[in-house]
Write a structure and sequence with these properties.
two-stranded antiparallel ribbon, 8 strands, 33% strand
Length: 126
């Protein structure tokens, strides 16, 4: 099955991994943090600010691949501090107010200065 790399200037990028990959109608978005692509800096110091930006980054990658948040079937959230889970959920509910996708959350293993959350997701375009 062929795969297509998805790339956009609307989200942070790295030469070490693809922002997203499409294969067989599925879009896989790499773990994305709350960096504002216009500044290259974290969008803020709170879990809500970083979650908001990380989801905006994921949305930009999905759009570059021809999908939307409505196509998301699974999300993985990695939190630096598990105590931030309520704040993460508060912002999450704004993005997925009804019929949310499957989701898991775990502790972020990598220590990245200032990063509170990393979000990866999978969407299905059908």
């Amino acid at each position: 099955m062929p795969r297509t790399t998805i790339s956009t200037s609307g989200a942070p990028s790295s030469p070490l991994y693809a922002q997203g990959v499409e294969a067989g109608g599925h879009i896989y978005v790499s773990g994305t943090v709350g960096i504002d692509p216009s500044t290259g800096e974290l969008a803020g110091s709170t879990i809500e600010e970083q979650t908001r930006q990380a989801l905006a980054n994921c949305e930009a990658i999905l759009e570059a691949g021809g999908a939307t948040l409505d196509d998301v079937v699974e999300v993985g959230a990695l939190l630096h501090d598990p105590d931030d889970f309520p704040g993460f959920n508060q912002e999450w509910a704004r993005w997925f107010p009804t019929d949310p996708p499957a989701r898991y959350a775990a502790k972020l293993g990598a220590v990245i200065p200032g990063v509170l959350v990393s979000i990866r997701l999978e969407a299905f375009k059908g």
